[in-house]
Amino acid sequence: MFSLTVAACGIGMFCTHLAASAQPVPVDLGTLMSEAVTQHPDVRSRKSNARAAGYELEGARWGRYPSLTTELQTQSGGPQTVIKVEQPLWTGGRITSRIGVADAGVGEAEAAVAEIEQNVLGQTAGAFFEILRLESRLDAARASETEHKRLFDIIQRRVQSQVSPATDQTQAAARLNQAITERIQTQRQIEAARLALEQMVGRKVAELAPPPHIGLGNWNEDSLLDAALSFSPERRRLEAQVAVANAQIDLARSQLMPTVVAGYQSRLGNLLPGEDRGRLYVALQLQTGAGLSSMSGVQVAISRKQAALDAIDALERTLTQQVRSIWSERQALGRQVEPVRALLSGADEIVASYLRQFQVGRKNWLDVLNALREKTQAYYALADLESPILYAEVRLLLLAGQLNAQNPIPNHVR
């Protein structure tokens, strides 16, 4: 009997352990951001483009090495196979320009990777904090629904006892239905936000772990703006486009220059009288292309360079406005937190006081319902302040380059 009891206890403890281990572990923002930039298809696509650009650079560098060509000729003496090996001696900058175009293309592709990573991190953080905001509102909505049910039960008993008019019960029922509707709508919004977050990380996400106080450390508006302008992956991508255009200008101009090559030619097959089997030579080659297409290529590259420069100027203005707008938003939200918390500190007592005064005839029923409504709205307001403040700080740090794929949480938070 004793052994059966011990066995039963052991099985119970084992089942309890399994149940505890089956509970979903809350996931933090840093984990989700790292997962998003690791597996998001847009990031993988840009990284593949960056690898392709690296191979293009490798191919361009091979232009400095000898080239091998073969051709089959048919002459009166019979078929011949001609094999040529040519080493460029001077190309007028053509090879260097091609390498420059490819090298700038690598920089552009790498900046594009950083740009999409920044966007993915921002979208992931946005969905994360939206869920936290809505979950705080859901807690307030559930508490409001519970309180309205309690008030409805109170007024229903008073109406049944003919102490209060039926209109009071009607008002209580309307407010209760409104509270239920708000709770259902908030739950639906959470589902939509959670779906957006799951699309970013590529897996199901259960419970979220609220982040610690993030803060901005010693950063101020001007230092954040300077860092954002310096770090901006989009700006680096546009600057790389300028470098590509400069290299393309040099390449187009080099097309007008001759090429000097040293080569060796070997003939296999039937030779005509006086033909040599092999010979060394130095040749001057010139190929300008169709008409003035090379000059048109120069103008194309110049126009693209100017377009990239104009885009950089526009980006600086947009980024300046974005940083200053987020900073102002954070400051405005922060100034509202303490007044809302002060309002909430006495909200419960106000509702209880109004209910007591109603019972002795000093307040009407609508005053009680309005007091509860104001309390709920204050909780909603606090939820709409706390998470957006954290999100604004994350966005500023993200723009300043303090958050990235390798460092999803700033060092001063850890």
Give a structural overview.
The structure is a single chain. By secondary structure, this protein is of the alpha+beta class. It has one domain: Outer membrane efflux proteins (OEP) (Up-down Bundle). Helices cover 70% and strands 10% of the residues. It has helices at 2-22, 29-39, 41-61, 94-160, 166-201, 221-231, 233-254, 293-345, 347-359, 365-399, and strands at 67-75, 78-90, 259-269, 278-285. Strands 1-2-3-4 form a four-stranded antiparallel sheet, with no helix packed on it. Helix 8 packs antiparallel against helix 10 (365-399). It is elongated, with a radius of gyration of 36 Å. The protein starts with a helix and ends in a 15-residue tail after the last helix.
Output the keywords.
414 residues, alpha+beta, Outer membrane efflux proteins (OEP), 4-stranded antiparallel β-sheet, 10 helices, 4 strands, elongated
